[in-house]
Amino acid sequence: MSTFRLGVDIGGTFTDAVMMNESTGEIRLVKMSSTPSDPSVGFINVIERILEESNVPARSVTYNVHGTTVATNTIIEGKGAKAALIATKGFRDVFEIARQIRPKLYDIFCDKPKPLIPRALCFEVPERLDFAGDVLAPLDEKKVREVARRIKREGVEAVVVCLLHSYVNPVHEKRVGEIVREEMPGVFVSLSSDLCPEMREYFRASTTAINALVMPIVSRYLERLERRLMEIDLRAGLHLMTSAGGIMSSQVARQQPVNLIESGPAAGVAAATHLGSLLGPHNLISFDMGGTTAKAGLVEGGVPKIVPHFEVGSAAVSENRSAGYPVRTPVVDLVEIGAGGGSIAWVDPGGGLRVGPQSGGADPGPACYGKGQTEPTITDANLFLGRIDPEYFLGGEHKLNPDLAVNAIGFLARKLDLQPVEAARGIIEIANANMVGAIRLISVQRGFDPRDFMLVAYGGAGPMHANALARELHIPKVLIPMSPGVTSALGLLVTDIKHDYVQAHIRPMEAIDFDKLTQEYQSFERQARDVLRSEGISEADISFSRSVDMRYVGQSYELRVEAPSRDLKPGDEGKLNAAFFEAHQRAYGYAETSEPTEVVNLRLTALGRIRRPQLRRLATGGQDSAEAVKGVRQVYFSEAGKRVACKIYDRYRLRCGNSVPGPAIVEEKDSTTVIHPGCHAAVDEYGNLMIQESH
Amino acid sequence: MATVASQEDQQRSKLEMDPIRFEVIRSAFDAAADEMGAALRKSAYSTNIKTRADFSCALFDAKLRIIAQSFSQPVHLASMSRMVPNAIRQYGVDKLDPGDALVMNHAYRGGVHLNDIVVIAPYFGDEKLQGFVAALAHHVDIGGYAPGGYCISTELYQEGIILPPAKLVSRGKIVEDLFQVILANIRSPRQSAGDFRAQIASSLLGQRRMGEIIRKFGEETIETFVDELIDYTERWSRQEIAKLPEGVYHSECYLDDDGITDEPIKLAVTARIQGGRVSYDLTGSAPQRSSPMNATLTQTYSPLAYVIKCLIDPNIPTNEGFYRLIDVSAPEGTVVNAKAPVGVVGGWEVAMRLCDLTFRAFSEAMPDRVMASTKSINCHMACGGEDPRSGEYYTFIETMAGGYGARPTKDGLDAVQSHIQNTENSAVEETENNLPFQITRYELIPDSEGAGRYRGGLGIRRDWKFPDHEATLTVFSDNRKYAPWGLFGGGNGASSRYVLDPDGEARELPSKITLHLASDSVISYRTPGGGGYGPSHDRDPEAVLADVLDGKVTAARAREVYRVVVDTVHRCVDFEATRKLRDDNR
Question: Could you tell me the residue range of the domain that residue A187 belongs to?
Fold first, then answer.
């Protein structure tokens, strides 16, 4: 009997399920509306539907992974658990003061993010360590007990402990934790030194508090899911996608729900990584464009770029520093901008044409949805230019009204004194310029040359723009996977289990204690091995990668540098320095090799390898793709400066080996691919379209 | 006549250039400026640049017109657009070669204060000068009388090394002689050298990006683009300014003193909004002092432009097109347009107060668009000494947050930077790792808010202890004798205080002083709360209750000032007692 892998990705608008037959690689998809009031309902609905449609018994599902926004939404909506903070005396206002800056420079009405824990529930205890972890003032245990009793009367679900310099010496935090547990059995206690032993108190406290605030909510949510899964007899252990683009078992996720904050976007990058690994070239730029935003990520040598921190709850456009809450956990590095199918085009009072970041979202959506939107969006421009078939949007489930798009674009064109076709072209060109900017940020600004990368484009709108973006950036190849609209859900099925560990270890390079370093790494590995085994991973599938965060003495942004997997020993300083100088040169354009360096954090990533599923292969055909042509339409291409007769292809009829010459449009249920004049797309054995220049 | 003008305006309300190309080029230049900023910030050494983000990067065309600028501190609004053209013109364009970069900080040659050092690099394409890039950064030390550049000076010469425009990089190589002279004047040369390298790297990046953009679109197109950008900015700004109520508005206030004498310093602002333009006249402001409390005209310009930016669409770009509409006239030889050789490092306090004063001038005409006074100080702490751990000389500066003014529809923010200043705090743990002092308290000050229908934000207390070494410390601040004002019946915020050894002798210090600290001394800063908006007895009793429960306002103050009786046992408002109290006092 066949066995199946199941992935469920819940977004704001849609809940996607993807199911793969492990032996044939055949994939099935179901897309249903999300149920925001209780996402677990949509979760079970979509599973029941996909099982029913494919006539697969629940028991045949052996692997179940979930991408969720529950943790993020809990923070953004301010619906976290009631929690209290215990801080060092003199420092209880860590959340009130935060970074002391305003998110917007010229808006006198703007606010700082609301403190994660209200001041009334922030307490302090006498104690103090210095930067080296030595005790300056002992912990006053009597006071701790008093505070614990006061907190008990408040009826909180969680207690967050964040004491100064606990990342270097957790002794006081641990003792506070013990006392609180004695006084308040059953309450969840979260120590900053356990979760995030890194320097910088506000960032550590914020991370720990977010973990504590979402924990009871995530825990109840997962319990509900697992109960419903049992009811429908789906017994495969539930796994969750993490921000770092790995997965973890629901048991582990319950303890560290802060790792689920960027669960959704990470899945897409995981899918792109997997597709890249099938094809060989391991340097990829992922490009995900949906209804409201576009996100670009980068994969080097088969490994997605990870950054050690981000901000939750700030606007998509990253310039609003401090608008959200900092989280210090590893997260897939993504540059996100407000450019999606629903992004609105408008004329600013100076007479400039702008696109986004305002979006019509799913409701009212673009003007052509007929739900009352009167301003044109990117989707309206694509429709106007003939790139979208109004009768075959989302496979025809959702008919578009081209007249409404014409009206909206005409209105904009009159304001600009342009022909409507010029206005529509302009919307696309400006949106593309913004997206080119995002891809430059993730590549050029990080020291990578886009010409050395392949662009992997997905999301409902990504394949429509990818070819033009690649031309602009001189990216030689563009890969459009099958079913780009559900690529993120596919990512859930192809990802390894991953756990990250970090420990602050601040030492000048010349004073490194290598024995201590080895002990720290070995301790990480022991912890990781225990967790991975509890998740059913066998020893042969476990691997570790070690790295250190380094900087010049006196800097305060660190760069991550790979460390050898063997134990480091005296004499390795040069190796680490060389790797650091290279990273600094790449990131900032210079490296001073005579300057002293220091180590700041030790990091370990533990992987539990999951068997890679086979993707289904296509039947082989000849180079000629004429079989798949389903019609001809007038489509505008800026290269031609006008509308030209363009062949429309049915993606499901393409065969391996086919070549599709541009200009061409390839349609499938969940997306439309545009191939520009002078380019062509080759169809590979997995049905991927590989677009490149024809010359 | 009026009809003709409006027709002309209408015709000119459109871009002459293809609006699509215009937007594409604009976003390319904006991205280049942002990229320069990111590179500078992340590779710099000093906390001031990397954490506090006290820097600015910009691109200019060959005619020295600003094309794009990235910054987090509005105080840099005007400094770039004046400093860079001044420096280049004074140095002489014909003396520049490819691969060169100039350095400059001279306050009396278009600069602001000596800590703000700009690195300017010309961009040559096809052997022809096609533009400039500039990276300005606030250096933590610049030599001079006291560590950190903040001192009670009487002349600019005491404030640090003065750099007229000079080549720091010649044909791609650092000019070692000059570089070593600069570093020899600085107390923490290693840190500063790192910051200079980051500025140079950022400029190189800017040059590369500028080259890519010019090659792609062509030099002529770029020139047309800059013409258009300036017209576009002017058109949009004029339209927005025209929406503000026309009239002449005036307000006056005082700063504590100048650090040398006790005499308060008068500031006076008259603003005329008319015909889509704003003209400021600062006549009536005090004559300049032999003290640090003087601002150059460049420094005075930024806060006045900033206030207008707050009143119009914030998305308007800032370049000549915007600046053209804002005239500032200030009599030479006053604290708002200082002439050499008086000190200028306290010009920040002048500039900050000008923001609040200008908002107050507009308050009667635009009551729904202005806030009560914010903390209205930059509030510097600068210190230095020999690090007992390493033997190296260290320097450090920090600026403290305080209360934001109450707003027409909501409370002022607690513990935040205000107006032209938006520098981040450095983490306590990071500071203690890098520097040999301890921060012993960092907390809100209850009852420091200006009471009101909407209350001002709370000030903060931050205490430092200097164990095992002697240090030199400068308090450079204000609003100790005065206090942030309320508006429309709102109360004043608490004044600032600076206390030496708060748990011992508790000596109250003036708001401007350089001190020699004995080992183990503690210095305590208490920053002001923001002013209130509207009468305090109009405040919603539930809002008063929330503040009492949060420990931000005491129950006693709630009763006395807000006339709200809080039942702290049941955590609720005693409405009956409150009504009676409010009725009795009406």
Answer: 75-217
> Are A75 and A210 contacting, i.e. CB atoms less than 8 angstroms apart?
yes
The answer on A108 and A89 residing in a single domain is yes
Those of residues 525-584 in B touching chain A at CB distance below 8 A are 549-552
Indicate the SS3 state at residue A60.
helix
A309 pLDDT higher than 90: no
What's the Cα-to-Cα distance from A544 to each of A262, A305, A525, A565, B290, rounded to whole Å? 23, 17, 8, 7, 65
Beta bridge partners of A86: A123, A161
> Is the Cα dihedral A55, A58, A60, A65 positive or negative?
positive
State pLDDT tens for residues B94-139: 999 999 999 999 999 888 899 999 999 999 998 899 999 999 999 9
Q: Look at residue A584 and tell me if it is in a domain.
A: yes
Same-domain check for residues A124 and A109? yes
- Number of domains present in the structure of chain A: 4
Return d(Cα B275, Cα A170) in angstroms, integer: 65
- Quickly list H helices, B149-188: 176-184
Q: What is the DSSP letter of B98?
A: T
Q: Is B376 left (phi over 0), alpha (psi -120 to 50) or beta?
A: left
Residues A175 and A90 in one domain: yes
Instruction: Please indicate, yes or no, if residue A336 is contained in any of the structural domains.
Output: no
State the CATH number of the domain containing residue A183: 3.40.50
**How high is the pLDDT of residue B237?**
95
**Residues making up chain B, counted from first to last:** 586
The count of other CB atoms within 10 Å of the CB of residue A390 is: 15
Assigned domain for A674 exists = yes
DSSP structure string for A432-486? HHHHHHHHHHHTGGGT--GGGSEEEEESSSHHHHHHHHHHHHT--EEEE-SSGGG
The pLDDT score that the predictor gives to residue B4 is 36
Examine residue A468 and state whether it is found in any structural domain, yes or no.
Answer: no
Q: What ipTM was predicted for this assembly?
A: 0.92
Please give, rounded to a whole number of angstroms, the shortest distance from the CA of B351 to a CA of chain A.
16
Q: Which tens digit of pLDDT belongs to each residue from A619-648?
A: 898 999 999 999 999 999 999 999 999 999
User: What pLDDT is stored for residue A14 in this prediction?
Assistant: 77
Element at A253 (helix H, strand E): helix A250-255
Same domain, A574 and A541: yes
Cβ of A351 and B239 within 8 Å?
Answer: no
User: CA A388 to CA A82: how far, in whole Å?
Assistant: 49
Contact B443 A429 (CB under 8 A): no
Least confident of A10-24, A150-164, B131-145: A10-24
The verdict on A186 and A64 lying in the same domain is no
Q: How far apart are CA B253 and CA B483, in angstroms?
A: 11
- Residue A295, amino acid: K
Helices and strands (H, E) in chain B, number of each type: 14, 22
- Nearest-angstrom CA–CA distance, B565 and B555: 7
Per domain, the residue ranges of chain B are 2-236, 371-539, 543-584
Q: Both A205 and A81 in a single domain?
A: yes
Q: Compute the average pLDDT of residues A206-222.
A: 95
Pairwise CA distance, residues B195 & B205, whole Å: 15
Please give, rounded to a whole number of angstroms, the shortest distance from the CA of B290 to a CA of chain A: 33
Neighbouring C-beta atoms of residue B567, cutoff 10 Å: 14
The answer to whether the CB atoms of A422 and B20 lie below 8 A apart is: yes
Are B423 and B53 within 8 A, CB to CB? yes
CATH of the domain at A224: 3.30.420.40
**Where residue A566 falls among pLDDT bands split at 50, 70, 90?**
confident
**Coil vs helix vs strand at B100:** coil
Residue A157 shares a structural domain with residue A226? no
Do A553 and A634 lie in one domain? The reply is no
Q: Nearest Cβ partner of A90 from B427, B433, B441?
A: B441
